[in-house]
Amino acid sequence: MLATFSHFPPLILKNTFNFHNSISLMHTFFSNSNSHNLSVMLQGHLSHSHLLQIHAQIFRVNAHQDNLVATRLIGHYPSRLALRVFEQLRTPKIFPFNAIIRVLGEEGLCSYAFSVFKDLLHCSVSPNDFTFSFLLKACLRSNDAKYVKQAHTHVAKLGFVSDSFICNGLLVAYAMGFKDMVSARKVFDEMPDMGVVRCWTSLIAGSAQSGHIEEVLRLFFMMVKENLRPENDTMVSVLSACSKLEGAEIGKWVMILSEFINGVDSGSVGRDSVNTVLAYLYGKWGQVEKCKERFDEIVGIGKSSVLPWNVIIGAYVQNGCSLEALSLFHVMIEDLNPRPNHVTMVSILSACAQVGDLDLGKWIHEYVKSEGSKAILESNTFLATALVDMYSKCGSLGMAKDVFEQMVSKDVVSFNAMIMGLAINGEGEEALRLFSKMQELGLRPNSGTFLGVLCACSHSGLLHRGRQIFLDMILRFSVPPELEHYACYVDLLARVGFLEEAFEVVASMPFEPNNFVWGALLQGCRLHSRLKFAQDVSQKLVKVDPENSAGYVMFSNALASDQQWGAVSGLRWFMREKGVRKHPGCSWISVNEVVHEFLVGSLSHPQIDRIYHTLDGLMKEMKVASA
Question: In DSSP terms, which residues pair with 597 in a beta bridge?
Answer without folding.
Answer: 588
